[in-house]
Design a protein that fits this description.
3 helices; 8-stranded antiparallel β-barrel; 19 strands; 59% strand; mainly beta
């Protein structure tokens, strides 16, 4: 059966499981300059050894459109419901100097975790090559492609926010001459990632098929947390680079037309 006979278009829907193989740099922090901080030996910029950010596993609904140019070559556009991930912390953020312990925040404290949750958007395009003759019921495949990622619905844990405001925000607001309540903001930077995929298609009755795949995604992100004074002045900015690099397993039902 040729590509024309079996249908050049195909929709696939099913579940996907993301398993990150994450690696994180220690948290890097910048503080607003203050005379009390200089007197106490607190550096404006410091790294907290032993700190790390970890990304949780996640499941989601995957939707794919495939266009088959021939019996062997196809392009696939992947989307679906953006997965929600949890960000967990390890280690203590502690400024330099003898007074640094007064501003310490434990990222690994159970009350502070998960530090945040975020929804990952990752539309993907893949060029796929299928092996074996198109008349075979079982056909393995390989694919290469790229994805562009960004994050939405970022929410910080309330206890974590309270600890940041109490330990960092309020003391720094007073020290820098910006008294009043402080607020915590979070962001995550996405970008372009590359993806490699191995899979199979098992033809069922008529236009239906069962499709499975295992994808290896090269994906990095930068997690950012800021504390602002009541007047909007940035008092603290911390960031951590995370190589997420998830392995993604998917099982889908396909329909050709």
């Amino acid at each position: 059966m040729s590509a024309a006979e079996s249908g050049a278009h195909q929709w696939l829907v099913g579940g996907a499981y993301f398993s990150p193989r994450d690696r994180s740099d220690p948290l890097y922090t910048e503080l607003e300059d203050s005379a009390p901080g200089r007197l106490l030996g607190i550096d404006e910029r410091f790294t907290s050894p032993g700190t790390a950010a970890r990304v949780s596993d996640a499941t989601t609904l995957l939707l794919i459109y495939a266009h088959h140019f021939s019996d062997h070559l196809a392009v696939k556009l992947e989307g679906g419901v953006p997965a929600v991930f949890e960000l967990r912390g390890e280690g203590q953020v502690r400024p330099t100097g003898a007074a640094g312990a007064l501003l310490e925040v434990d990222l690994g404290a159970p009350a502070n975790n998960p530090l945040a949750t975020a929804r990952l958007w990752a539309p993907t395009v893949l060029l796929q090559y299928s092996f074996r003759d198109a008349t075979r019921r079982f056909r393995p495949s390989i694919a290469l492609g790229a994805t562009y990622t960004w994050y939405s619905d970022i929410e910080l844990d309330e206890d974590f926010c309270a600890a940041l405001n109490q330990q960092f925000g309020q003391p720094l607001a007073l020290a820098t001459g910006h008294p009043g309540p402080t607020t915590v903001h979070a962001d995550a930077q996405g970008g372009v990632g590359t993806i490699a995929n191995v899979g199979f298609e098992w033809r069922l009755a008529g236009p239906w098929s069962l499709v499975g795949s295992l994808s290896f995604l090269r994906l990095a992100t930068t997690s950012i947390i800021e504390i602002h004074a009541e007047d909007g002045t940035q008092l603290v900015r911390s960031r951590a680079h995370i190589d997420v690099d998830p392995v993604i397993g998917a099982l889908l039902l396909g329909y050709r037309f």
